[in-house]
Amino acid sequence: MSASAHFCPLPRTTFVYTVAMTAFDCTDQHVVTRLYERLGRVVVAKTRGIVGREDVAREILQETFTRLWEAGPRFASETAAYAWVYRTSHNLAIDYLRAAFTKSEPLPEALVAAHRGDAAETRQLLRKLLGKLSEEELSLYVYNVVDRMTHGEIAALGGISTKTVARHLQRIEEKIARAKERIRD
Question: Which of 24, 32, 87, 125 could be bridged to 75 by S-S, CB 3.0 to 4.6 A?
């Protein structure tokens, strides 16, 4: 698996509820319930920002916690469990976007609004681009466009340099420019 497949940023709003524990056992129903109560609203808000729909964000929340319960992992700390929940929900949101674009479902307005010009052209462009972006590029793009994060914030979350973030975002913008030219031709 490539290094880019391991890009796992932490949430922009760092969780304040860290509790030192020797182990955080997600086979325990009480532990999973506590995580759900603490993270549910944060996960829904974050994924709604990515997918643009409340109902889908709630489905992603449910799927995330279903996977957590089924996997039953043990974490060294609550913070590690938070990171797992965040990474899983983020990946599910990105998967939803990929599927939505291929099924011609409505695109999140934050993505469409990020591009000046005709909305129909922008939607067509984004549908074509989605399949051409790597998982890391798509994550970076969503953080930059949907979450409006700075290069420094994205770099800190992803554990990469601001230069790398800038380089990836520049490549994405170049892909967008080329796709726009093809659409107009």
Answer: 24
Tell whether 42 and 100 lie within a shared domain. Answer: yes
- The string of pLDDT tens digits covering residues 140-166 is 887 787 777 788 888 877 778 999 999
Does the predicted model carry a pTM greater than 0.85? no
In contact, 75 and 86? CB cutoff 8 Å: no
Q: Are residues 121 and 175 in the same domain?
A: yes
Contact between 96 and 60 under an 8 Å Cβ cutoff? The reply is yes
C-alpha–C-alpha distance, residues 75 and 104, integer Å: 39
Residue 119 sits in which domain range?
107-185
Q: Are residues 113 and 62 in the same domain?
A: no
Q: Cβ-count burial of 175 within 10 angstroms (0-12 exposed, 13-18 middle, 19+ buried)? A: middle
Q: Are 4 and 134 in contact (CB under 8 A)?
A: yes
Task: Give per-residue pLDDT as tens, 94-143.
Answer: 888 877 766 655 556 655 555 555 556 666 666 666 667 777 777 788 77
DSSP structural state of residue 5 = G
